[in-house]
Amino acid sequence: MMLRVENVSVTAGGKMILSDVNLSVADGEVVAVLGPSGSGKSTLLRAIAGLAEVVAGDILWDGKSVLRMPTHERDFGMMFQRYALFPHLDVAGNVGFGLKMRKTADLDSQIDEALDWVGLAGFGARKIDGLSGGERQRVALARTLAPRPRLVMLDEPLGALDRNLRQHLLIEIRQILRGVTALVVTHDREEAAALSDRLALMRDGTVIQTGTIESILANPVDDWVTTFLG
């Protein structure tokens, strides 16, 4: 296993947000973190990225703890729920932001390559304000993928899009993630099934069951699981 989350707990404002979370992601595996709103999905990604303080437990990559490692040194890429694009930068400036922070050589060719991955070749000079919702989503994905992080984390990558566009982009994102080690947060069962190799089902701040939808439904831990996935 490449990533292991072991008994991780996170608090905020005196409230327990994550409680004793355990999760593993193998090399090249895409795991969807699925659960209702408020179940702790986004907080889990933030904890793995180093953006939320872990008060108990450990997060390991290849058996080595990353808890004391600064966010930028973890080499994990994260696409935020609302994309967090910079409106004052053009598409190339947004995609190349992380590459510049790393002082990457051959910057322009890596930006072009990342845009090509997401079907936006030639979009480098475009302004963010002039893009459609789907194009902005692809720019955010290209920015996440451009530095070739060892782990990709996507927080509700299709949540801000209308249903027709979401269906169209599901297949494309799955193709882009092929062979990539990734965590995808979603509250949508169909999206989770289409994007992932395996699910991690969250409720009340913890992972209650993992597996494919078929295996979970065949042996649910409780009635809530059956209802939620049904």
Tags for this model:
26% strand, alpha/beta, Rossmann fold, 230 residues, single chain, six-stranded mixed sheet
SSE map:
Elements: E1 3-12, E2 15-25, E3 30-34, H1 41-49, E4 56-61, E5 64-65, E6 76-79, H2 91-95, H3 97-101, H4 107-117, H5 133-145, E7 151-155, H6 163-176, E8 182-186, H7 189-195, E9 198-203, E10 206-211, H8 213-218, H9 223-229
Parallel strand pairs: 3-8, 3-9, 6-7, 7-8
Antiparallel strand pairs: 1-2, 1-4, 4-5, 9-10
Helix pairs in contact: 4-5
Number of helices: 9
| Biggest pleated-sheet summary | 6 strands, mixed
Give the DSSP E fraction (strand runs of 2 or more residues).
25-35%
Structural class by SSE content: alpha/beta
CATH topology call of the largest domain: Rossmann fold
H-E string: EEEHEEEHHHHEHEHEEHH
CATH class descriptor name of the largest domain: Alpha Beta
Helix content: 25-40%
Assembly category: single chain
Q: For this structure, what is the CATH homologous superfamily of the largest domain?
A: P-loop containing nucleotide triphosphate hydrolases
Return residue spans where pLDDT drops below 50 for at least 5 consecutive residues. none
